[in-house]
Batch of 2 targets.
Target 1
Amino acid sequence: MARILVVEDEPILARGLEDDLKLEGYEVELARDGETAARRAQEQPFDLIILDVMLPHKDGFEVCRELRRAGLRMPVIMLTAKTQESDKVLGLELGADDYVTKPFSPRELRARVKAALRRASGGIPEAYRFGEIDVDFARYEARRAGKLLDLTPLEFKLLAAFIRSRGRVLQRDQLLDGVWGRGTFVTDRVIDTHITNLRKKLEPEPAQPRYFISVRGVGYRFDG
Ligand code: CA
């Protein structure tokens, strides 16, 4: 799960953010001032930083500038109490990825966090090629040696999940969460059937898969 550093000097707000993000399953660390924040962010790997602008010792802008200068690339979401456009622009110029104006709804912040993490994880490329297959995710088209293939939307999602994790084993329940959605009831057999179909459409020799590899007792790995 993603690790988030929350930098906020106002105790009630800080605690609220911490509780809320933990409920979402994130690991959360709090920092109360800019100096601590800048230090912790360089000592520990964080996937995302929520950074208040008005902080003791060092303000959020300075912290952001310092982290970017140190070569850290994790997404930074600035919290600004002001609605001045200049603040937002300055934050973005200093390398913040997004900003949220106080007061904000926890739901809005959660959505921004999720989006920033998704962008940072690279998502999937718009186009991907392996073997004779060309996939265009923007157009939902896949071709084999130039000839259009008939992939269902679910097969596109499966393929995207594989490409995102290429070279790594995906367990069936990871595929289930990522493709069908958490809480859906789908048997292993159904997952296997879809992968068989995907192989029929995309493998040069479906009976001897080269790209969609079964890893016995665990799941599948995409070697494309
Ligand atoms: Ca503050």
Target 2
Amino acid sequence: MSEKTLFEKIVDREIPADIVYEDDDVIAIRDINPQAPMHVLVCPKKPITMVSSAQPEDAALLGTLLLKAGEIATAEGYGDRFRLVVNNGAAVGQTVFHLHVHVLGGRSFTWPPG
Ligand code: AMP
């Protein structure tokens, strides 16, 4: 049995987190090192490593992550002005190898992203 990911440990209440949303499929927590006034991580409970390792059977779950990201941003007051980021691979900054969508809001963002 492979070791649990950080987010699996949070789901199992082995590591504390500020949980903003949870259902059978998804958990959303506040980032421990926020990069914006709102910085929430929306994670599938299924430990998919990254977008590129998701499978066709994960399509509905991937859609759910986006829908929940939008709902959370709206609930936080940023429904019409938030940014989603998904890092896919260590080379582009992924540090937790359990898929998650960063939901950021409350400041200005530049384009292109850094
Ligand atoms: P990424 O670099 O895209 O893999 O994002 C991982 C994110 O997880 C980073 O923004 C970290 O600040 C965040 N993070 C790491 N440990 C925790 C934790 N225990 N609780 C909440 N967020 C965390």
